[in-house]
Amino acid sequence: MRSALAGLAGLVGTLALAGGPAAASCQLLADGWIQAPPPLVRQAALAMDQVGITYIGHATFEIETPKGVRIATDYNNVHRPGRLPRVVTMNGAHSTHFTLNPDAGIEHVLLGWNPNGGAMDHDLTVEDVRIRNLQTNIRGWDGETRLLGNSIFVFEVADLCIAHLGHLHHRLTPEDLARLGTIDIVFAPVDNASTLRLDSLVEVIRAVSPRIVIPMHAYTYGSRESFVARMASEGFGVEMSESPLYIASRTTLPAGQTVLVLPEG
Fold it and tell me: Does the keyword Signal apply (predicted)?
Protein backbone atom coordinates (compact mmCIF):
# COMPACT_ATOMS: atom_id res chain seq x y z
CA MET A 1 0.00 0.00 0.00
CA ARG A 2 2.95 2.35 0.36
CA SER A 3 3.17 2.64 -3.45
CA ALA A 4 -0.39 3.91 -3.41
CA LEU A 5 0.53 6.38 -0.68
CA ALA A 6 3.41 7.66 -2.76
CA GLY A 7 0.94 8.74 -5.42
CA LEU A 8 -1.34 10.43 -2.95
CA ALA A 9 0.53 13.71 -2.63
CA GLY A 10 -0.54 14.92 -6.05
CA LEU A 11 -4.13 13.95 -5.37
CA VAL A 12 -4.53 15.38 -1.89
CA GLY A 13 -6.35 18.48 -3.15
CA THR A 14 -8.87 16.31 -4.95
CA LEU A 15 -9.22 13.93 -2.02
CA ALA A 16 -9.88 16.80 0.36
CA LEU A 17 -13.07 17.55 -1.57
CA ALA A 18 -14.48 14.07 -1.33
CA GLY A 19 -16.53 14.65 1.80
CA GLY A 20 -19.15 16.76 0.03
CA PRO A 21 -20.27 20.33 0.77
CA ALA A 22 -20.94 19.68 4.45
CA ALA A 23 -17.43 18.29 4.93
CA ALA A 24 -16.10 21.83 5.18
CA SER A 25 -16.92 21.94 8.89
CA CYS A 26 -14.86 18.80 9.50
CA GLN A 27 -12.01 20.16 7.39
CA LEU A 28 -12.00 23.50 9.14
CA LEU A 29 -11.67 21.71 12.44
CA ALA A 30 -8.83 19.61 11.09
CA ASP A 31 -6.97 22.68 9.87
CA GLY A 32 -6.96 24.03 13.41
CA TRP A 33 -5.76 20.84 15.06
CA ILE A 34 -2.51 20.45 16.86
CA GLN A 35 -1.08 17.01 17.37
CA ALA A 36 -3.01 15.24 20.09
CA PRO A 37 -1.01 13.89 23.05
CA PRO A 38 -0.82 10.12 23.43
CA PRO A 39 -3.69 8.63 25.44
CA LEU A 40 -2.99 8.05 29.12
CA VAL A 41 -4.92 4.80 29.39
CA ARG A 42 -2.91 1.59 29.48
CA GLN A 43 -4.47 -1.84 29.66
CA ALA A 44 -3.42 -5.11 31.22
CA ALA A 45 -2.81 -8.17 29.10
CA LEU A 46 -5.97 -9.38 27.40
CA ALA A 47 -7.51 -12.81 27.82
CA MET A 48 -7.85 -14.88 24.66
CA ASP A 49 -11.54 -13.98 24.36
CA GLN A 50 -11.06 -10.22 24.87
CA VAL A 51 -10.47 -7.27 22.56
CA GLY A 52 -9.29 -3.87 23.76
CA ILE A 53 -10.99 -0.87 22.14
CA THR A 54 -9.67 2.60 22.95
CA TYR A 55 -11.21 5.76 21.51
CA ILE A 56 -8.31 8.00 20.50
CA GLY A 57 -10.30 10.81 18.86
CA HIS A 58 -12.38 11.86 15.83
CA ALA A 59 -12.61 8.58 13.84
CA THR A 60 -9.52 6.89 15.28
CA PHE A 61 -9.80 3.89 17.58
CA GLU A 62 -7.05 1.59 18.73
CA ILE A 63 -8.08 -2.06 18.55
CA GLU A 64 -5.84 -4.52 20.39
CA THR A 65 -6.14 -8.27 19.92
CA PRO A 66 -5.40 -11.02 22.45
CA LYS A 67 -2.06 -11.66 20.71
CA GLY A 68 -1.14 -7.99 20.94
CA VAL A 69 -1.80 -6.87 17.36
CA ARG A 70 -2.64 -3.15 17.52
CA ILE A 71 -4.72 -1.48 14.82
CA ALA A 72 -5.49 2.23 14.41
CA THR A 73 -8.58 3.13 12.38
CA ASP A 74 -8.89 6.15 10.05
CA TYR A 75 -5.31 6.98 11.02
CA ASN A 76 -4.46 10.64 10.41
CA ASN A 77 -1.16 11.07 12.30
CA VAL A 78 -2.85 13.67 14.55
CA HIS A 79 -4.94 11.51 16.84
CA ARG A 80 -2.37 8.79 17.43
CA PRO A 81 -2.26 5.88 19.85
CA GLY A 82 0.48 6.02 22.44
CA ARG A 83 2.04 2.87 20.97
CA LEU A 84 2.92 2.35 17.32
CA PRO A 85 0.18 0.32 15.63
CA ARG A 86 1.05 -2.67 13.52
CA VAL A 87 -1.84 -2.00 11.14
CA VAL A 88 -3.57 1.25 10.18
CA THR A 89 -6.65 1.83 8.06
CA MET A 90 -7.38 5.09 6.27
CA ASN A 91 -10.22 6.71 4.34
CA GLY A 92 -9.91 9.40 1.69
CA ALA A 93 -12.75 11.80 2.45
CA HIS A 94 -10.28 14.42 3.68
CA SER A 95 -7.15 14.76 5.77
CA THR A 96 -8.83 14.01 9.09
CA HIS A 97 -9.05 10.40 7.94
CA PHE A 98 -5.65 9.72 6.39
CA THR A 99 -2.04 10.85 6.38
CA LEU A 100 0.53 11.06 3.61
CA ASN A 101 3.29 10.30 6.10
CA PRO A 102 2.56 7.22 8.21
CA ASP A 103 5.38 6.07 10.45
CA ALA A 104 7.75 3.81 8.52
CA GLY A 105 7.47 1.26 11.32
CA ILE A 106 3.80 0.55 10.58
CA GLU A 107 3.69 -2.88 8.97
CA HIS A 108 0.38 -2.66 7.10
CA VAL A 109 -1.16 0.57 5.72
CA LEU A 110 -4.63 -0.19 4.34
CA LEU A 111 -6.22 2.49 2.17
CA GLY A 112 -10.00 2.43 2.01
CA TRP A 113 -10.07 3.92 -1.48
CA ASN A 114 -7.93 3.73 -4.61
CA PRO A 115 -6.21 7.07 -5.40
CA ASN A 116 -6.16 6.02 -9.06
CA GLY A 117 -9.84 5.07 -9.11
CA GLY A 118 -11.47 1.67 -9.02
CA ALA A 119 -11.63 -0.94 -6.31
CA MET A 120 -9.34 -1.28 -3.30
CA ASP A 121 -10.09 -4.65 -1.74
CA HIS A 122 -8.49 -5.97 1.43
CA ASP A 123 -8.69 -9.35 3.13
CA LEU A 124 -5.72 -9.62 5.45
CA THR A 125 -5.01 -11.85 8.42
CA VAL A 126 -2.43 -10.69 10.95
CA GLU A 127 -1.94 -13.33 13.63
CA ASP A 128 -5.35 -13.51 15.37
CA VAL A 129 -7.29 -10.85 13.46
CA ARG A 130 -8.84 -10.85 10.00
CA ILE A 131 -9.30 -7.42 8.42
CA ARG A 132 -11.55 -6.94 5.39
CA ASN A 133 -13.35 -4.03 3.80
CA LEU A 134 -16.55 -3.11 2.03
CA GLN A 135 -16.31 -0.07 -0.23
CA THR A 136 -19.08 2.52 -0.43
CA ASN A 137 -19.52 5.73 -2.40
CA ILE A 138 -19.12 9.31 -1.17
CA ARG A 139 -20.26 12.75 -2.33
CA GLY A 140 -18.12 15.40 -3.96
CA TRP A 141 -18.37 19.16 -3.38
CA ASP A 142 -20.98 19.51 -6.12
CA GLY A 143 -23.03 16.58 -4.95
CA GLU A 144 -21.56 14.22 -7.52
CA THR A 145 -20.96 10.61 -6.62
CA ARG A 146 -17.36 9.57 -6.04
CA LEU A 147 -17.43 5.85 -6.57
CA LEU A 148 -15.81 3.61 -3.95
CA GLY A 149 -14.42 6.56 -2.01
CA ASN A 150 -14.95 5.06 1.44
CA SER A 151 -14.47 1.71 3.12
CA ILE A 152 -16.24 0.07 5.99
CA PHE A 153 -13.47 -1.94 7.63
CA VAL A 154 -14.44 -5.12 9.46
CA PHE A 155 -12.21 -6.67 12.13
CA GLU A 156 -12.86 -10.31 13.01
CA VAL A 157 -11.12 -11.23 16.26
CA ALA A 158 -11.82 -13.25 19.41
CA ASP A 159 -15.23 -14.40 18.12
CA LEU A 160 -16.31 -10.78 17.60
CA CYS A 161 -16.98 -8.81 14.43
CA ILE A 162 -16.27 -5.08 14.73
CA ALA A 163 -17.15 -2.64 11.92
CA HIS A 164 -15.87 0.92 11.43
CA LEU A 165 -18.28 2.73 9.11
CA GLY A 166 -15.68 5.27 8.00
CA HIS A 167 -17.01 8.42 6.31
CA LEU A 168 -20.30 6.82 5.30
CA HIS A 169 -22.52 8.94 3.03
CA HIS A 170 -25.41 6.66 2.07
CA ARG A 171 -27.64 3.86 3.28
CA LEU A 172 -26.47 0.31 2.75
CA THR A 173 -27.95 -2.00 0.15
CA PRO A 174 -29.05 -5.58 0.84
CA GLU A 175 -25.89 -6.69 -0.98
CA ASP A 176 -23.77 -4.50 1.31
CA LEU A 177 -25.42 -5.95 4.39
CA ALA A 178 -24.91 -9.49 3.14
CA ARG A 179 -21.21 -8.82 2.62
CA LEU A 180 -20.87 -7.29 6.08
CA GLY A 181 -22.42 -10.30 7.75
CA THR A 182 -23.24 -10.35 11.45
CA ILE A 183 -21.68 -7.37 13.23
CA ASP A 184 -21.37 -7.18 17.01
CA ILE A 185 -19.86 -3.71 17.49
CA VAL A 186 -20.13 -0.68 15.20
CA PHE A 187 -18.19 2.57 15.26
CA ALA A 188 -20.68 5.08 13.84
CA PRO A 189 -20.10 8.68 12.63
CA VAL A 190 -22.70 10.82 14.42
CA ASP A 191 -21.84 14.34 13.21
CA ASN A 192 -25.19 14.69 11.37
CA ALA A 193 -23.45 16.97 8.87
CA SER A 194 -20.61 15.75 6.66
CA THR A 195 -21.58 12.08 6.80
CA LEU A 196 -25.07 10.60 7.09
CA ARG A 197 -27.95 12.62 8.48
CA LEU A 198 -29.30 11.22 11.71
CA ASP A 199 -32.41 9.58 10.24
CA SER A 200 -30.33 7.74 7.65
CA LEU A 201 -27.73 6.73 10.22
CA VAL A 202 -30.43 5.23 12.43
CA GLU A 203 -31.65 3.24 9.42
CA VAL A 204 -28.13 1.93 8.81
CA ILE A 205 -27.70 0.94 12.45
CA ARG A 206 -31.07 -0.79 12.46
CA ALA A 207 -30.10 -2.70 9.31
CA VAL A 208 -26.65 -3.73 10.58
CA SER A 209 -28.16 -4.59 13.99
CA PRO A 210 -25.07 -4.57 16.22
CA ARG A 211 -25.19 -5.21 19.95
CA ILE A 212 -23.01 -2.16 20.67
CA VAL A 213 -22.80 1.19 18.86
CA ILE A 214 -19.86 3.43 19.73
CA PRO A 215 -20.21 7.04 18.48
CA MET A 216 -17.36 8.79 16.69
CA HIS A 217 -16.91 11.88 14.51
CA ALA A 218 -18.96 13.98 16.93
CA TYR A 219 -17.34 17.32 16.18
CA THR A 220 -20.45 19.49 15.72
CA TYR A 221 -22.06 21.05 18.78
CA GLY A 222 -24.55 18.71 20.39
CA SER A 223 -24.24 15.97 17.76
CA ARG A 224 -23.30 13.23 20.21
CA GLU A 225 -26.08 14.29 22.59
CA SER A 226 -28.63 14.34 19.78
CA PHE A 227 -27.54 10.90 18.64
CA VAL A 228 -27.74 9.43 22.15
CA ALA A 229 -31.19 10.92 22.74
CA ARG A 230 -32.45 9.60 19.41
CA MET A 231 -31.12 6.10 19.98
CA ALA A 232 -32.62 6.03 23.49
CA SER A 233 -35.97 6.91 21.92
CA GLU A 234 -35.45 4.00 19.51
CA GLY A 235 -35.16 1.61 22.45
CA PHE A 236 -31.38 1.35 22.73
CA GLY A 237 -29.73 1.29 26.11
CA VAL A 238 -27.16 3.99 26.81
CA GLU A 239 -23.93 3.62 28.75
CA MET A 240 -21.69 6.64 29.39
CA SER A 241 -18.16 5.45 30.10
CA GLU A 242 -15.63 7.48 32.08
CA SER A 243 -12.77 5.66 30.37
CA PRO A 244 -11.81 5.70 26.67
CA LEU A 245 -10.94 2.00 27.01
CA TYR A 246 -13.53 -0.75 26.63
CA ILE A 247 -12.69 -4.43 26.96
CA ALA A 248 -15.03 -6.37 24.70
CA SER A 249 -15.78 -10.07 24.69
CA ARG A 250 -18.52 -12.32 23.39
CA THR A 251 -19.57 -13.25 26.92
CA THR A 252 -19.97 -9.66 28.13
CA LEU A 253 -21.93 -8.22 25.21
CA PRO A 254 -25.10 -6.54 26.50
CA ALA A 255 -28.35 -8.45 26.21
CA GLY A 256 -30.01 -5.52 24.44
CA GLN A 257 -28.68 -3.13 21.81
CA THR A 258 -26.65 -0.44 23.54
CA VAL A 259 -24.97 2.86 22.70
CA LEU A 260 -21.62 3.01 24.47
CA VAL A 261 -20.19 6.53 24.65
CA LEU A 262 -16.42 6.60 25.15
CA PRO A 263 -14.58 9.85 25.90
CA GLU A 264 -11.59 10.69 23.74
CA GLY A 265 -8.33 9.30 25.05
Answer: yes
